[in-house]
Amino acid sequence: VLQISKDDVTALQCKVVCLIQNGNFKEALGVINTHTKVLTSDVIAFEKAYCEYRLNRIENALKTIQSASQQTDKLKELYGQVLYRLERYDDCLAAYRDLIRNSQDEYEEERKTNLSAVVAAQSTWEKVMPEDLGLREATYELCYNSACALIGQGKLNEAMKKLQRAEELCRQSLSEDSDVTGEGIEAELAIIHGQMAYIMQLQGRTEDALQLYNQIIKLKPTDVGLLAVIANNIITINKDQNVFDSKKKVKLTNAEGVEHKLSKKQLQAIEFNKALLAMYTNQADQCRKLSASLQSQSPEHLLPVLIQAAQLCREKQHAKAIGLLQDFADQHPVNAAEIKLTMAQLKIAQGSVTKACMILRSIEELQHKPGMVSALVTMYSHEEDIDSAIEVFTQAIQWYQQFQARTDYGCCVFQPKSPVHLSLIREAANFKLKHGRKKEAISDLEELWKQNPKDVHTLAQLISAYSLVDPEKAKVLSKHLPSSDTMSLKVDVDALENSHGATYVRKKAGKLTGDNQQKEQGQGEVKKKKKKKKGKLPKNYDPKVTPDPERWLPMRERSYYRGRKKGKKKDQVGKGTQGSTTAGSSELDASRTASSPPTSPRPGSAAAVSATSNVIPPRHQKPAGAPATKKKQQQKKKKGAKGGW
């Protein structure tokens, strides 16, 4: 038909629809753009917008829809999808409500599913409290979207129950379809299981979450967005551990088309984790590149600057890191508090506690907070700067007094006589008493007592402080103490002493008379005598012999020490001129001692040995140096030996 009439509108429309059905969106859009004179926006607006939507040209699709002269139902459906992709959730919610209200066909269930998805996205990404749409959760898609909305509210247990219900409905629905296999059911359940694992991760059940994440990856789902989210969550579980596994998983986040499947916040979180992973794997240049790119995309965001500062600290450039944070705090005063807290932490790590205190005190919106006051007082006390610590207390107390002085309590952050205010005064008084500032503590204690005259503890502290400064005033105040009669408590002393938690338990003693009493006294005397133990004496101790006065000194340091005595064989072998024999040479003769056992000679036999030592036959005589030489050779062998018997 087009060969006969190339500008036939109906034929061109049919060709565009066929190309769309075959998935050739780019070619279909080319045909529309080539025949703009014939295929006007009124004729083919939906097909053009749909091609642009499928080619991820979302802004162009929005312009095409808005330029159409007539807004048909199918254009409105596409308009809602485009608004969702652009994350304009309020407009999207209004569009779907209008569609559901003004249309009645077989697609009503799909519209309700899309509407619940918009509500879930608002709850998750914009932290908007979702309204009850009154949708009957009869399908697993509606249950899943409801669970996502509950996760956004932090209701994790309820969300898990919804996901379990969604899993049941999904299995039931798909099992009825004969064309769907078991693998197909598991693939469809993958996104539900992924959300379950995310809840486990938020609840601190990281091992269970990691196991479920890995099971989903083994299924190899075709949804690149799901794989990217799971890989990112595994990286967050690994943190600075198991970095090799994280480097493998990060490849899944770089798959083609991921940017079109995820929201901007999801993509941003993935990029943050990539930068952190580069820092943990010591890829400094890659870390700086990624963090700089993130900062250019979101100049007001804290994380890119914090990552850059962390990388500088790893490179031992603390001063440069602090300078970077200070510049960011000056440019973005809204986020200055968090940045200054980080700067103070770096100063403390460097040992500059006083400078850290100065930075913390410059955060005006946190000066009066009890946590900040406690931290500053602790740090100043560590530096022994008591005056500055007291000044911190004073400024915080004055801040609360200014608010309490207002008459228009509707504008007040705290009501008069705030517990926080009184707690700060009490802590200041205790701190001053501890560091000897009695007069300053007295004014704080008097203020507390005025607020609550029935507080006996505060009155006792006040009297104690006055007793060191003004005893007369202490006596006057002591009259306000309650009498002993009013303070007496009905306490059973015996039961208290015999209780399980008592440090001293009085034994129940029976009446002792006569012999029993003497026996008890005798046992007491024996016990006393046993405590005086005599020192132990050596077994060979002789009381008649005077102990050696040098017995406490080491043997080498004693006056009579003459060194170690050499062995007999060492004295006898190798002595005298070469070829001569010694008195003990007969002992080395194997033929003379073959029949005798290798033991020490008996008493009385030494004279016989020495008498016959000069009558050794010449053939049995050996040079005096031979044994010594043999011994040296043995010593050399021993040096090189590595084994033993």
From TrEMBL:
Residues 539-560 have a biased composition (Basic and acidic residues). SMART domains: TPR (SM00028). The keyword Secreted does not apply. Residues 58-113 form a coiled coil. TPR repeats lie at residues 190-223. It is found in: Cytoplasm; Endoplasmic reticulum. Residues 527-537, 629-645 have a biased composition (Basic residues). Keywords: Coiled coil, Cytoplasm, Endoplasmic reticulum, Repeat, Ribonucleoprotein, Signal recognition particle, TPR repeat. Belongs to the SRP72 family. This is Signal recognition particle subunit SRP72. It comes from Chloroceryle aenea. The gene is Srp72.
